[in-house]
Design goal:
The structure holds two protein chains of two kinds. By secondary structure, chain A is mainly alpha-helical. Chain A contains eight helices and no strands. By secondary structure, chain B is mainly alpha-helical. The longest helix of chain B is centred in the middle third of the chain and has 35 residues. Classes of the chains: A mainly alpha, B mainly alpha. The interface between A and B is medium-sized, with 25 and 35 residues.
Chain lengths: 227, 190
């Protein structure tokens, strides 16, 4: 091959896919946007992780910090106080009168009361979650949902710490419900559609609404006109 | 406000290290300075390889996004420009492979529908033939040829970017040129 061809070859090679002027600003804007989105996603992930951690801390702590001696001392003190008050307040019956039969009604009443409160709470939660799911589709006011979720969350936590949660299935339901309510309670005034999608997805996947409906006896749900 | 640093291949490593430290500390002006210092070189290389503006923009952007997120891993053994070149070439070759796979699927479908494509009627000139011959080179040969003969990279820079020995880079360039000459042999005879 002669030198002329070599020169032609080299010149033509330099023209191979000759680049235009670098679109500097357009690419920089795209890079910045992409990095900002990545940063936001990382922050959101960290936030979610932290929220979950604090949720776990809240639900696990009572069991971790359970100290039998302290509890025993407390119960003993309450018992002693109760016995003392009982002795002072009871009028002694006249001699010869037949002793009254002791009826242990208090624990039964208490269990029934807890059951009633739990049922009411679950039915309210079910109604709320049904409305929430519908409002996500139609674009409702998330501030109201967040406020209601906070109220329900407070009741839910009280119930979790009460004898109502002794039943394993109820405790599990209340714990799962707490997670959903906590997510809704954390929604900002203008939540991103992704947040809402995640919550509704969680509702669907966990079968929360059907579990609530199963737990609430027929006729007790406010959506069915009981409240 | 745009900050421009001198070409890092010519500038001191100290200056480069300082710029990197500022980027790692979260200084946005340093990020822009780093981008401005290297974007032309990266874009030119990527465009030469991709031959398409949109793809070149995508691959260049991805190069810088990846570089910023992995800057802490840069140990400074090579120049920053070489490190960026290695990211750019890896992203570009991977991207082009994906495009080629997609294209091959489409062509296979087209051929099945319309039969084999007609042979080109017009005899192309040297430039067109050379372009086609470069396109037909295997990825490794093409990268070395474009980097060395078209963009003026040294064999050391190419070797670091592609993760090969400088001797391998030289050998690949020799083979690439031989293939191109072979493809253009009839032009040489004229």
């Amino acid at each position: 091959m002669d030198d002329r061809f070599e020169d032609l070859f080299r010149d033509s090679a330099r023209e191979y896919n000759e680049p235009p002027e670098t679109p500097r600003e357009a690419m920089w804007a795209a890079i910045q946007a992409e990095r900002a989105a990545e940063k936001a996603e990382r922050a959101e992930r960290a936030e979610r992780k932290e929220a979950y951690r604090s949720f776990r801390r809240f639900t696990v702590r009572p069991f971790r910090s359970f100290r039998p001696l302290r509890w025993a001392a407390g119960i003993a003190a309450v018992l002693a106080l109760g016995i003392g008050l009982g002795r002072l307040s009871v009028k002694h019956p006249p001699a010869g009168a037949a002793p009254a039969t002791a009826v242990a009604t208090t624990p039964r009443v208490s269990a029934a009361a807890y059951r009633l409160v739990t049922t009411e709470h679950l039915s309210q939660s079910e109604a709320f979650l049904t409305l929430f799911r519908a409002s996500v589709k139609t674009g409702g006011d998330e501030r109201l949902a967040s406020a209601t979720a906070r109220q329900l969350l407070a009741t839910n936590r009280l119930l979790l710490d009460s004898p109502a949660a002794r039943d394993g299935r109820t405790r599990l339901l209340l714990q799962d419900l707490e997670l959903v309510l906590a997510e809704i309670a954390q929604l900002s005034a203008q939540p991103r559609s992704r947040d809402l999608d995640l919550i509704t997805e969680g509702l669907e996947q966990g079968g929360m609404l059907s579990r609530l409906r199963t737990a609430v006896p027929a006729g007790a749900s406010p959506t069915q006109g009981a409240l | 406000m745009r900050f421009r640093t001198q070409d890092p291949t010519l500038g001191s490593r100290v200056e480069e290290r300082e710029l990197i430290s500022r980027v790692l500390a979260g200084d946005p002006t340093a990020e822009r300075a780093l981008y401005d210092a290297h974007v032309d070189r990266v874009f030119r290389l990527v465009y030469r390889m991709a031959g398409d503006l949109d793809r070149a923009k995508d691959y260049t952007q991805e190069t810088f996004i990846r570089a910023f997120s992995r800057l802490a891993e840069f140990r400074g053994e090579a120049a920053l420009s070489t490190w960026l070149g290695s990211i750019a070439i890896s992203i570009t070759l991977n991207g082009l492979r994906k495009v080629r796979r997609l294209y091959e699927r489409e062509v296979a479908l087209d051929d099945a529908l319309t039969g084999a494509r007609a042979a080109r009627v017009v005899e192309p000139d040297l430039k067109t033939r050379l372009t086609q011959a470069i396109e037909d080179l295997p990825d490794g040969y093409r990268a070395v040829f474009v980097m060395h003969d078209v963009e003026g990279y040294t064999h050391e820079e190419i070797a670091t970017s592609l993760g090969v020995h400088p001797g391998t880079s030289k050998a690949q360039l020799f083979r690439a040129r031989a293939r191109l000459r072979e493809a253009l042999a009839d032009f040489a005879k004229e």
